[in-house]
Design goal:
Elements (H helix, E strand, L loop, with lengths): L1 H19 L3 E7 L18 H9 L1 E3 L2 E2 L5 H10 L3 H4 L26 H7 L3 E7 L23 E5 L23 H16 L7 H29 L2 E3 L2 E4 L7 H15 L5 E6 L20 H23 L6 E7 L31 H4 L3 E4 L8 E3 L3 E2 L3 H8 L16 H4 L10 E6 L2 E7 L8 E8 L22 E11 L18 H18 L9 H4 L19 E6 L2 E5 L21 H14 L3 E5 L18 H13 L4 E8 L4 E6 L5 E9 L16 E7 L6 E8 L2 H7 L5 E5 H5 L6 H10 L6 H11 L11 H11 L3 H9 L4
Parallel strand pairs: 1-8, 1-9, 2-11, 3-12, 4-5, 4-8, 18-19, 19-20, 20-22
Antiparallel strand pairs: 2-10, 5-6, 6-7, 9-10, 13-14, 14-15, 15-16, 17-18, 21-22, 23-24, 24-25
Helix pairs in contact: 8-9
Length: about 800
C-alpha cells in the first residue's frame, strides 16, 4: 500500500512539473521563400521532407499573412506584433528596407519584442542569421539597434541582408540605371536644345562641360561605391564583434545550423528561445557543395534543399535531447518569392508562389501569403490544416503568453494569440480586419466577416507591372509605392480571396450584390485604423537610410586609421588593437614623429570613453612596451614612444584589464607599476618562436597556442594554458597530438595572474638560485633544454624587464643591482 501511495505521489509530482515547465521556442524564418516551394503546400518538384514532416506532426496554416511584403518591415512586425508603421519601419519614398549597414535607422529601442519579454521571464535567447533592422545610431559602436538591445542574449549572423554584392559575379542591387528618370531627362534636354537654337536660351560651352563633369563625377562615385560594397555591407558578426568582413557564403548555412544546434544543446536544461533567421533563399544565391546540383531548379532549388536539411538538423536535435514535447516549433517566410530575381548571367533565381498572384514587394497574395507551420507534440494536434486568416504578428502574443509574460498594455498590439485556434477551442480567427501597407501607404484592407466564409480584400492602389503581361516589376527590380509607380482605384479594387485566391477577377456591383456595403464597411475600418496609428519617427527616411561612414563597423576602418582600432567584444569588454610597429626602431618613416598616425591621441580618447562607459579593456599589439629582456637598456619600441605609452597605461590602469603582445620577448611577463610602485596591470608576451625539443629536432616550427582564462565579472586574468604540437612526431605518426606545455599558475604556484601576483613572482626572481626563475627562463627560451641557464647580467636584464617598464625605474633597477 505504501509503495502504491508513493508511486501515485511521484506521478502527481511529475505531472505538476511538466505542466509548470515553460515551453521552449524555435522560430524559423526563411528569406524570400515562396509558399509554393514546399511539398506540404503543393510543390512536386522540390524535395522538402523535413519541412513537410513539420506539417504532418503539427498544424499547417493556409491563410498565413506576412504583415509586409519586404524584409525589414515584415521582420519588425513579426518581432513586435505590430504593424511596421507603428514602429516607424516605413518611409514615403522608393526605399522600403535598410540598404546599408552604416545607416542610422532601425528598430527603435522603445519597441518591445517577444525576445525581450521572454528574456525577462528567464529565457536564454538567441538570434542566428539575418537581422536587417539596423545597427548604429551615432557612432560605429553604439549598437543602439543591435539584437542585444531587443532581447537576444546571443547573436551570430549578418546585421543587414544577403545582397547580390556579397558574392563576386552576381552583380549589384544598386542598379541605379533602372531608376533614372530617362523620360524627364530626355524632355529637359530636348527642350533646352530647341530653346538654344531658337535663341531663347544661351547654353555656354563652359556650362555644358561643367554639367558633363558633374555627371561623370556622380557616375564615378556610384561605381566606386559598388566596388567597395562587399567590404561595406557584407559583414558577419558574433555578438558585438565583426568576425568576417566581407563574409563568405560558402557553408554559411551549415555554420549557422551548427551554432543553432550548439545553442539548443547548451541550454537544454533551461527555457530557451531561438530565432533562426535563414539567409537563404535571398540573393545572392548560394548552396553548400553537398547540395549544389541536387534540384531541377538550379541554385535556387539547391538552396531550398539546404534549408530543408537545416530544419531537419534542428528538429532532430530537439528529438535527440527529448525536448520535442517541450518546444513550440514555427516555420515561415518573411514574404513571398522575389519574382524579379534574374541573375547577372540571366539565370532564374526566384521561387514560386503557387496559385497566388505576383510576389515580394506587392500586397497581392503572392507577396504576403506565406507558409505557416507549427509543431508542438502533445499540445497542438498533428496533421491539422487551418484555413482562417492569421498573421506573422500573431507569434508575438502567442510567445509572450506561453512564456509567462504579459502582453504590453501601453501600446497597440495587432497580433492575436493563436493557441485557441491551434488547439481547436475556437474555429474562427480573431482577425476580422487585416491592413496591408506598402511602405507608409495603406495599400489594401482584408475583411473576414464573423458570419461569412468570404475574405474580402480591397486595393486602394496597385503597382504598375512591367512588362504589361507580367505580374512583376522587372524594370525596377521591385515594385514601388510612390504615385508615379502605382495606379489608384476609386472605388477600390475588390476581391473575395476565399473564392478567388489568385485575384484574377475584381468584383463589381453586377457580380456582387453587397458590393457597396462591403466597400463602405472596409473604408470605415481603414479610417478607424488610421486614427489608431500614432505618428513616430520614420526610420526608413532619407536621413536614416543613407550611408554614413562614421557608423561603419570598426573593422573596415583599420587600415585607414593606421592599423589600429577598437572593438566592443561584448557589453562591458572592449579590445584595443594598437599598431606599435609605428614606434618600432626599423620604421624610418615615423622616426621623428611625435604621434605617428595620431595613435596616442586616439588611444587616450578611446580609453576615456571606455572609462565613461564603465567598460574594461584588453590591449593587444605586436611589439610590446617595456625593455628587452635580453639586451641591456634597450626598449622594444623607441624609448620616447615607450615613455608616452607607459604614461597612458598608468593613467588608465583602472580601465585596462590586461595587455597581450607577441614579439622578440619570446615567452615573457611584465608587471606595470604606478609612480608609487604599486602593481596595476599584468602584461603577457606570447612566444614569437615555437617550442623545440632539442637543436637536433628535424622540424622546429612547432605550432603553439595559448588560452587565457579570465574572471567573467571584472575580466581580470586568472590563468594561461599553453599548448603546442610537436611536428616531428606528428609527421611520423601522421596524426596531431596537441600537448599542454604548462599552466602558468601551477608552474609558479600563483593564485591568479593579477598584477599583485606577478609582482610577487618578479620579486622572487631576484633571489639567488631560485627555481621559479629557472622555470621562467625555460619558458622564455621556449625550449626543453634545461642546460641553458641565465645568471649575472643575463638575469639582471630579465628581472628588470619584468618589473620596470619606464626609463627611470628601469635605470634604477639596473644601477642598484646588489641583489
Amino acid at each position: 500500500m505504501t509503495s502504491a501511495w508513493l508511486l501515485l505521489l511521484l506521478n502527481i509530482c511529475c505531472v505538476s512539473l511538466q505542466e509548470n515547465r515553460k515551453p521552449n521556442f524555435v522560430l524559423m524564418m526563411v528569406d524570400d521563400l515562396g509558399i509554393g516551394d514546399l511539398g506540404c503546400y503543393g510543390n512536386t518538384t522540390l524535395r522538402t521532407p523535413n519541412i513537410d514532416q513539420l506539417a504532418q506532426e503539427g498544424v499547417k496554416l493556409t491563410h498565413h499573412i506576412a504583415a509586409a511584403s519586404l524584409c525589414s518591415p515584415s521582420r519588425a512586425a513579426f518581432l513586435t506584433g505590430r504593424y511596421p508603421i507603428r514602429s516607424g519601419i516605413a518611409g514615403d519614398g522608393r526605399i522600403s528596407v535598410f540598404m546599408f549597414i552604416a545607416a542610422s535607422g532601425g528598430l527603435p529601442r522603445e519597441e518591445v519584442t517577444f525576445a525581450k519579454i521572454a528574456q525577462q521571464q528567464g529565457y536564454e535567447t538567441a538570434l542566428i542569421g539575418k537581422w536587417h533592422l539596423g545597427l548604429n545610431c551615432e557612432s560605429s559602436e553604439d549598437h543602439c539597434h543591435h539584437p542585444s538591445v531587443h532581447g537576444f542574449h546571443y547573436f551570430f549572423g549578418i546585421p543587414l541582408t544577403n545582397l547580390r554584392d556579397c558574392q563576386a559575379g552576381h552583380g549589384t542591387v544598386f542598379m541605379v540605371y533602372k531608376y533614372l528618370p530617362y523620360r524627364t531627362l530626355g524632355v529637359a534636354g530636348l527642350t533646352a536644345a530647341v530653346l538654344h537654337y531658337a535663341g531663347v536660351l544661351v547654353l555656354r560651352r563652359r556650362l555644358l562641360l561643367s554639367l558633363l563633369a558633374l555627371v561623370a563625377a556622380a557616375a564615378g562615385l556610384i561605381a566606386a561605391l559598388i566596388v567597395v560594397m562587399p567590404s561595406i555591407n557584407c559583414v558577419l558578426m558574433r555578438d558585438h564583434r565583426v568576425v568576417e568582413q566581407p563574409f563568405t557564403s560558402e557553408n554559411l548555412t551549415q555554420r549557422m545550423t551548427r551554432e543553432a544546434v550548439g545553442f539548443i544543446e547548451k541550454n537544454s536544461a533551461r527555457p530557451f528561445l531561438l530565432f533562426f533567421s535563414f539567409i537563404q533563399v535571398h540573393t545572392a544565391m548560394f548552396a553548400s557543395a553537398a547540395f549544389r546540383g541536387t534540384s531541377r531548379h538550379g541554385i535556387y532549388g539547391d538552396a531550398v534543399h539546404e534549408v530543408d536539411w537545416s530544419v531537419g538538423e534542428i528538429v532532430r536535435t530537439l528529438d535527440r535531447l527529448g525536448l520535442s514535447e517541450d518546444t513550440l516549433v514555427y516555420l515561415t517566410s518573411d514574404q513571398g518569392a522575389h519574382l524579379e530575381e534574374i541573375s547577372a548571367k540571366g539565370e532564374v533565381h526566384r521561387g514560386w508562389n503557387g496559385i497566388y498572384k505576383a510576389g515580394k514587394s506587392t500586397n497581392f497574395e503572392g507577396g504576403i501569403r506565406v507558409p505557416g507551420l507549427l509543431r508542438w507534440p502533445g499540445n497542438i494536434p498533428s496533421g491539422r490544416q487551418i484555413d482562417e486568416p492569421t498573421s506573422n504578428m500573431d507569434l508575438f502574443p502567442t510567445v509572450v503568453q506561453l512564456s509567462g509574460g504579459t502582453v504590453p498594455q501601453d501600446r497597440q498590439i495587432d497580433g492575436r494569440d493563436l493557441m485557441d485556434l491551434l488547439q481547436g477551442r475556437v474555429d474562427r480567427s480573431d482577425h476580422e480586419f487585416l491592413f496591408h501597407y506598402c511602405n507608409a501607404y495603406l495599400n489594401a484592407v482584408r475583411w473576414h466577416p464573423r458570419n461569412s466564409s468570404s475574405v474580402w480584400k480591397a486595393f486602394f492602389f496597385t503597382p504598375n507591372f512591367y512588362p504589361g503581361n507580367e505580374t512583376a516589376c522587372f524594370h525596377t527590380h521591385v515594385c514601388f509605392c510612390t504615385p508615379d509607380a502605382v495606379t489608384y482605384h476609386d472605388p477600390p479594387l475588390l476581391f473575395d480571396v476565399f473564392r478567388d485566391p489568385s485575384e484574377t477577377t475584381p468584383l463589381t456591383p453586377d457580380t456582387e450584390p453587397a458590393y457597396h456595403a462591403i466597400l463602405a464597411t472596409m473604408e470605415a475600418a481603414a479610417e478607424a485604423h488610421g486614427r489608431s496609428v500614432e505618428p513616430v519617427e520614420r526610420q526608413i527616411s532619407a536621413g536614416n537610410v543613407l550611408w554614413k561612414p562614421w557608423l561603419q563597423p570598426q573593422a573596415l576602418l583599420t587600415l585607414s586609421q593606421g592599423g589600429f582600432y577598437s572593438q566592443l567584444v561584448k557589453p562591458g569588454l572592449r579590445v584595443l588593437s594598437l599598431n606599435t610597429i609605428l614606434y618600432y626602431g626599423p620604421n624610418q618613416v615615423t622616426r621623428n614623429t611625435t604621434d605617428p598616425a595620431g595613435q596616442f591621441e586616439w588611444l587616450q580618447k578611446t580609453l576615456e570613453k571606455a572609462a565613461q562607459s564603465l567598460e574594461k579593456v584588453y590591449i593587444i599589439a605586436h611589439v610590446p612596451v617595456g625593455y628587452l629582456p635580453f639586451a641591456r637598456a634597450t626598449t622594444a619600441v623607441r624609448e620616447s614612444h615607450n615613455e608616452r605609452l607607459v604614461a597612458i597605461f598608468r593613467q588608465f590602469s583602472h580601465v585596462i584589464a590586461g595587455h597581450f603582445y607577441g614579439h622578440t620577448h619570446r615567452d615573457s611577463i611584465m608587471v606595470l607599476l604606478d609612480q608609487h610602485g604599486k602593481p596595476v596591470n599584468s602584461l603577457f608576451v606570447s612566444p614569437a618562436v615555437t617550442p623545440i625539443k632539442s637543436v637536433l629536432e628535424p622540424y622546429s616550427n612547432n605550432p603553439a597556442f595559448r588560452m587565457y582564462l579570465y574572471n567573467t565579472k571584472d575580466y581580470a586574468l586568472l590563468d594561461i594554458w599553453q599548448y603546442y604540437l610537436n611536428l616531428t612526431e606528428a609527421n611520423e605518426k601522421q596524426s596531431s597530438d596537441w600537448r599542454l606545455e604548462y599552466i602558468m599558475t601551477e608552474a609558479f604556484g600563483l593564485a591568479d595572474l593579477g598584477p599583485r601576483s606577478l609582482l610577487q613572482l618578479g620579486l622572487s626572481f631576484r633571489l639567488p638560485q631560485t627555481r621559479a626563475f629557472d622555470v621562467y627562463f625555460s619558458h622564455f627560451m621556449v625550449s626543453y633544454n634545461r642546460s641553458i641557464t641565465c645568471a649575472g647580467d643575463c638575469k639582471l636584464s630579465q628581472v628588470c624587464a619584468v618589473l620596470h617598464l619606464d626609463r627611470l625605474s628601469y635605470s634604477k633597477c639596473v644601477s642598484e643591482a646588489e641583489w
